[in-house]
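To: structure desk
From: M.T.
Subject: fold request, one chain
Message: Could you run this one when you get a chance? Sequence is below, nothing fancy, just the single chain.
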Amino acid sequence: MRPPVAVPRVRDYLRMLARGWPVILVATLLSAAAVVASYRYVQDPVYAASTQLFAVVPGDAQTHAAYEGNRGSTVRISTYSQLAVSTIVTQRAIDELGLPDTPAQLAKRISVRSVPDTLTRFAYPMSVLINVQVTGSDPNSTVDVANAVARNLSAATQELEWSGSESGPSLVLIDDAKSATNIGRSWLSNAGIGAAVGLILSCLAVIAIGVRRDEVLSREQLGYVAKQSAGGKWTEDS
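Reply: Done. Structure tokens follow.
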């Protein structure tokens, strides 16, 4: 039986990394630059435009009626949020603007939330104001789509809530979209992600090369460590 060989220590790996610092530094910088360039020149930017609508339930000015009207509006917010991404609204917006999207594709670009985004103990939104946000790769087109979605959402609620002789509860557009903002990650964030990936991969590569060259530990030591981890014993035949 051979005598036990030394198990590699942490400082062995640190020494290897210290010797390979030029490779690690260059790989980290190149990776950061590659990610920034990819997001800037390869991937399309992402813009977002928002509109706001107010849920209205008609009624008289008495206290009880006003309370019931407000409660009726908040209860309907969840339904209106689902209606915003329904085919009723998306198809009309597509037809109005002549968009190449399908209703399902446009629905993925729409997000709806109440403002403020808080819920009652019964899981109903506490607010009767909702924000409808649409994303896209072109700022002007995104603004147009956001306004078209809001208009058709408001019209759909009036049609669905119509009670014959009087108009029922509905959403009223109070703030249309005027501009779109870039919501993509900043170049600094992208550089940080690229640098982290480059750092990790280059460190692993340096250690792997060191193992292959027996600079961190020998192949014999690797076999011994593997046997010890598996609960086996090192023998001459091993």
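Reply (cont.): The beta strands are 47-56, 110-114, 129-136, 170-175, 181-182. Let me know if you need anything else for the meeting.
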